Amino acid sequence: SSPAESANMNAANHLGAGTLCAICGDRATGKHYGASSCDGCKGFFRRSVRKNHMYSC
């Protein structure tokens, strides 16, 4: 992983057991990319950022 990703992981706030992922509603594991999120959503956004993917609704 890159130094920026490592710093982001180290700085992530670990949340209480009842906190939900702001994207999908699953159990959040921390604050990733500025939002409380689960590991699945964290991985999706990490891949999107790495590959410069652009999504539109």
TrEMBL record:
Q: Which Gene3D superfamilies does the entry mention? A: Erythroid Transcription Factor GATA-1, subunit A (3.30.50.10)
Q: Which UniProt keywords apply?
A: DNA-binding, Metal-binding, Nucleus, Receptor, Transcription, Transcription regulation, Zinc, Zinc-finger
Q: Where is the Nuclear receptor domain?
A: 18-57
PROSITE patterns tied to this protein: NUCLEAR_REC_DBD_1, NUCLEAR_REC_DBD_2
One of its Pfam families is zf-C4
Among InterPro entries, the record links this protein to: Nuclear_hormone_rcpt_NR2 (IPR050274), Znf_hrmn_rcpt (IPR001628), Znf_NHR/GATA (IPR013088)
Any one GO MF annotation of this record: DNA binding
Q: Does the keyword DNA-binding apply?
A: yes
Q: Would you say which domain of life the source belongs to?
A: Eukaryota
**UniProt-recorded name of the protein:** Nuclear receptor domain-containing protein
Q: Which species does the entry assign this protein to?
A: Cirrhinus mrigala
